[in-house]
Design a protein that fits this description.
This protein is of the alpha/beta class. It has one domain (1-335): Rossmann fold, CATH 3.40.50.150. The chain contains 14 helices and 8 strands. β2, α7 and β3 form a beta-alpha-beta unit. α2 packs across α4, α9 (208-221) crosses α14 (300-320) and α13 (277-292) packs antiparallel against α14 (300-320). The longest helix has 21 residues, at 300-320. The protein binds S-adenosylmethionine. S-adenosylmethionine (SAM) binds next to α4, α6 and β2.
Length: 335
């Protein structure tokens, strides 16, 4: 068994303060600080939130478009299979998963496609969990892990057949630099596909409400800066990729079941219940008790609170149509 956050520390208040400091514009936290010290900011964030994510969302830390009546986890699997099929993954290919979390997508993609998947992740806690889950799933041979920064991959030039990322490249301090690094390790003719967190064309940089929502998403989700769809396309081509296809998948499901529905508290599910006003009060009371009796690290309540705030900002961004967590693209390295 790997360690849990509780076993690692009985007090995370300093870690919470350090993370929040990166977003505190009145006290030295700004976009430049977050970009310069992105490794501390991002990995510190995932140390704090990984256990919450797993309890509330499962082992795949991404959203999915969904259809009326479709179970949440079926939509998550479909979203993974969509990407794997668009990328043409098949047995014998050596594929990189950038920012692989605890490996939910990696296991889904390996099973669906038969490809060999290498997950890269900067967060040691998630890497240890992903390794354990791969063994438990009987996939230790098919799925391997590298603890590394995706901005500087410990891989040879041209050594990878295909690359994908599920809602992870949004953490990069510089997207062009990241895409160049991915292009370096790809074989000529190889393809890179991702679901990217982006501001849509409806985002207005002069609108204070839009800026407030953007900031809320960045703080609630460990991001240095959210980019627009247009800027993301430009970064891909600047890095040398030929854009094969792109599409905002946010509206590809039913309008009654948007990607952010589980965060609204309006859905009849365990996540919906936890996110409802009553559920939030109950969770908060439970955490207070767990902290008091030493079963949860001190500071856990604050983590829960900033995750709730971040989730509210995601819902606002989704409802206003100014934000998408699933701008999908496939780029190709010229042969
Ligand atoms: C929202 S999670 C998504 C995880 C996974 N793709 C999934 O869908 O389950 C973002 C992931 O990116 C990883 N990450 C962020 N910045 C990274 C970096 N510079 N190098 C490697 N991994 C990074 C985080 O540690 C985290 O695992």
């Amino acid at each position: 068994m790997g360690t849990t956050a509780t076993e690692r520390s009985d007090d995370v208040r300093d870690d919470v303060a350090q993370y929040r400091g990166f977003h505190d514009e009145g006290d030295g936290g700004d976009v430049e600080t977050r970009k310069t010290d992105y490794t501390t900011m991002v990995s510190g964030f995932y140390d704090l939130v990984t256990d919450f994510y797993e309890r509330g969302w499962g082992k795949s830390f991404h959203f999915a478009p969904r259809f009326e009546g479709e179970p949440f986890h079926a939509s998550i699997a479909r979203h993974q299979h969509f990407l794997a099929s668009r990328l043409g993954l098949r047995p014998g290919m050596r594929v990189l998963d950038v920012g692989c979390g605890v490996g939910g997508p990696m296991r889904g993609v390996a099973r669906f496609s038969g490809a060999q998947v290498i997950g890269v992740n900067i967060n040691a806690y998630q890497v240890s969990k992903a390794r354990r889950y791969n063994v438990e799933a009987g996939l230790a041979e098919k799925c391997e892990l590298i603890e590394a920064d995706f901005m500087e991959l410990p891989l040879e030039d041209g050594s990878i057949d295909a690359i994908y990322g599920f809602e992870a490249t949004c953490h990069a301090p510089d997207k062009t630099a990241l895409f160049r690094e991915l292009e370096r390790v790809l074989k000529p003719g190889g393809r890179f596909a991702a679901y990217e967190w982006c501001l849509t064309s409806a985002f207005d940089v002069e609108d204070v409400e839009h800026l407030r929502i953007k900031k809320g998403i960045e703080e609630g989700d460990g991001l240095p800066d959210i980019w627009t769809i247009d800027a993301t396309r430009a970064c891909l081509t600047d890095a040398g990729f030929t854009l094969i296809e792109d599409e905002d998948r946010a509206s590809s499901g039913d309008a009654t079941t948007p990607w952010f529905l589980p965060l609204t508290g309006r859905e009849r599910s365990m996540t919906g219940l936890r996110r409802s006003p009553l559920g939030r009060r109950a969770v908060s009371a439970l955490i207070t008790v767990l902290e008091a009796v030493g079963k949860a690290p001190k500071g856990t309540k604050e983590v829960s609170q900033f995750l709730h705030d971040g989730a509210d900002a995601l819902v606002e961004g989704g409802e206003a149509g100014i934000f998408t967590p699933m701008f999908f693209f496939v780029g190709e390295k010229p042969a």
